[in-house]
Amino acid sequence: MQNTASSSALIPVAEYFKLLSEVSRLQILNCLRSRAMNVTEISEATGLGQANLSKHLKILTQAGILSRQPVGVSVYYEINDPLIFELCELVCDRLSDRIQQQAEEIQQLKILHSS
């Protein structure tokens, strides 16, 4: 991202992150990580109800993150942009680093307190 980006140029970036700010959507993406699934399979894997799941699948599909493929009477959803997982891994790694740092700080406080 350039430092000179205007507010209007940042709107699509904010919208992309907004898509990923919903736990249910992250659950859906995680369960589709290894293979395409139909709505019933996704519902069973995530525990999401049909109406809620359909809403999130529509949002993710419209955003281009998922693609949908009719197969007989079912519709299968799959990840359309696998780079989404690299982004998620970066965030998870960063969070893990923070948790580790906090644990070390707590341990140091315990040592100081017990002295």
How would you describe this protein?
The chain is of the alpha+beta class. Helix content is 65%, strand content 12%. The chain has five helices and three strands. It has a three-stranded antiparallel sheet. The longest helix is centred in the last third of the chain and has 32 residues. It is extended and about 70 Å long. The model has no long low-confidence stretch (mean pLDDT 89).
Keywords:
115 residues; alpha+beta; 5 helices; extended
Secondary-structure topology with pairs:
Blueprint: H1 7-19, H2 23-31, E1 37-38, H3 39-46, H4 50-62, E2 66-71, E3 74-79, H5 83-114
Task: Summarize, please.
The chain has helices spanning 7-19, 23-31, 39-46, 50-62, 83-114; strands at 37-38, 66-71, 74-79.
